[in-house]
Automatic annotation (TrEMBL):
Transmembrane segments: 12-31, 73-94, 106-128, 155-179, 191-209, 215-235
Functional summary from the UniProt entry: Part of the twin-arginine translocation (Tat) system that transports large folded proteins containing a characteristic twin-arginine motif in their signal peptide across membranes. Together with TatB, TatC is part of a receptor directly interacting with Tat signal peptides.
Taxonomic source organism: Microbacterium marmarense
PANTHER family: SEC-INDEPENDENT PROTEIN TRANSLOCASE PROTEIN TATC, SEC-INDEPENDENT PROTEIN TRANSLOCASE PROTEIN TATC, CHLOROPLASTIC-RELATED
Main subcellular location: membrane
Membrane topology value: Multi-pass membrane protein
Compartments, as annotated in UniProt: Cell membrane; Membrane
UniProt KW keywords: Cell membrane, Membrane, Protein transport, Translocation, Transmembrane, Transmembrane helix, Transport
One Pfam family recorded for the sequence: TatC
Record protein name field: Sec-independent protein translocase protein TatC
UniProt record similarity statement: Belongs to the TatC family.
Length: 253
């Protein structure tokens, strides 16, 4: 294909992906209420723990805050709903230039990364009530706890996104190993640095006073790192056996 044909094809793929995103956002706009109830459950838990007479509410501080919140939620949910379409468009655009081996590796990478990302989001959703409840304990008795809706949503969204991406990072290590950039033994030798990074990331993603949640998140990230290192070493061993068998077959009798 010529450069002009590539640009036309890219424009067509982007247009299809954009249409799918808009449709996903329209559908998502309808289901924002149950999603909002889910992510604001920690606020209701805090309200029950503080008892009657304590003001603990989700606050909308401007005239358009309610619409802005729904629009942000619709974009995030619509992006997930339309993911099969726009991911396929990206894949279909680059696939003609890939070898069969690269296609197989890419499918394996996506097949591992997507479940891990959602597992990370689920973990973030699991630890979020502990974070909100813990932070609420620092509000003085008799004081009102009003959670700005936009800020609260941004906090939840960033927490789920960061934890989701952190769960996918071990897949990148395996991908680098398959590409021959780093060996499994080299990955394993960096376990001390990996543990430090896991603890620092968990500390940043969770409140400093919530030690249990920090250790839980750091432990999960550490286990994923060792799983990536073990899988990479297994791939290295298989590659070494294939190379040895090839050299033996090529050796003169």
């Amino acid at each position: 294909m010529s450069l002009g044909a590539h640009l036309v094809e890219l424009k067509r793929r982007l247009l299809i992906g954009a249409i799918a995103l808009v449709v996903g956002m329209v559908v998502a706009f309808i289901v924002t209420d149950p999603v909002l109830r889910l992510i604001t459950e920690p606020i209701r838990i805090v309200a029950e723990s503080r008892g009657e007479g304590s003001a603990v509410e989700l606050a909308f501080s401007s005239v358009t805050a309610g619409f802005d919140l729904r629009l942000r939620m619709s974009f995030a949910i619509g992006l997930l709903l339309s993911a099969p379409v726009w991911i396929w468009q990206v894949w279909a655009y680059i696939m003609p230039g890939l070898t069969r081996k690269e296609i197989r590796y890419t499918i394996g990478f996506v097949g591992a990364a997507v479940p891990l990302f959602f597992a990370g989001c689920a973990t973030g959703l699991y630890v979020m009530p502990n974070i909100v409840s813990l932070m609420a304990t620092f509000v003085p008795e008799g004081a009102a706890a009003f959670y700005d809706a936009i800020y609260y949503y941004d906090f939840v969204f960033k927490l789920l996104l960061f934890v989701g991406v952190a769960f996918v990072l071990p897949v990148f290590l395996v991908a680098l190993n398959l590409a021959g950039i780093i060996s499994g033994r080299a990955i394993l030798q960096g376990w001390r640095i990996a543990i430090i990074i896991a603890v620092v990331f968990a500390s940043l993603a969770t409140p400093p006073a919530d030690i249990a949640t920090t250790l839980l998140l750091a432990g999960i990230l550490t286990m994923l790192f060792f799983a990536a290192a073990g899988l990479s070493m297994l791939f290295d061993r298989r590659k070494a056996k294939r190379d040895a068998a090839f050299l033996a077959s090529e050796a003169p009798e």
